[in-house]
Every structure is written in structure tokens, then in C-alpha cells.
User: Fold this.
Amino acid sequence: MVPEPPSIRIRTDELRTVREAMRDFGSLLTELEGGEVEKLVLTQRNRMRAVVVSVERWSELEQALAGTRRVSGAQDGRDHEAALPPDRPEIAA
Assistant:
């Protein structure tokens, strides 16, 4: 059984194929940084595969999530800003 795709709001101008992203990543970053789009949803074989957001937007999302966790009391005691997946050292750069 195939899992249902996540439900997110996407504008047509936010959709890009993985191939487009690989070929023209610089201009996509310019669109994000310039505020032309809030996010880019990358698709492959007609399936959503990833969402790309600017560093500023990511920070906003993390702060909003941290606020939600504090309110709900679901803190796990870890330093979330420093927590990185152990198998992804390139993220730490």
C-alpha cells in the first residue's frame, strides 16, 4: 500500500522538477531570497520529493515549532539548535 502524500498548499509557481532544480539552482535561490516564492516544491516522477525554503524562513519555522513545543510541554531536553543527524555531517557546515 502506497502512503498518502503530505497535504500542503502549493502555488503553481512554487513547483519545480528535480531536474530543473539541478540545472538552475542559482536562479531558484535568487527567487527564494528575493521573496518571489515562499518555498519551492521539488517533484520527481510526479511525486513531491522535497521542499526548499530560505534560511530565514527555516529559522522562522524552527522558532514557531519551538514555541509550540514549549506551550504543549513536549520538550525533550535536547539542544535543538545543535542537534544534527549523525549520518549527515555535511549539514553542519
Notes: The chain has a mean pLDDT of 80. Residues 12-72 form a domain with the YefM-like fold fold (CATH 3.40.1620.10). The CA atoms of residues 14 and 40 lie 5 Å apart.
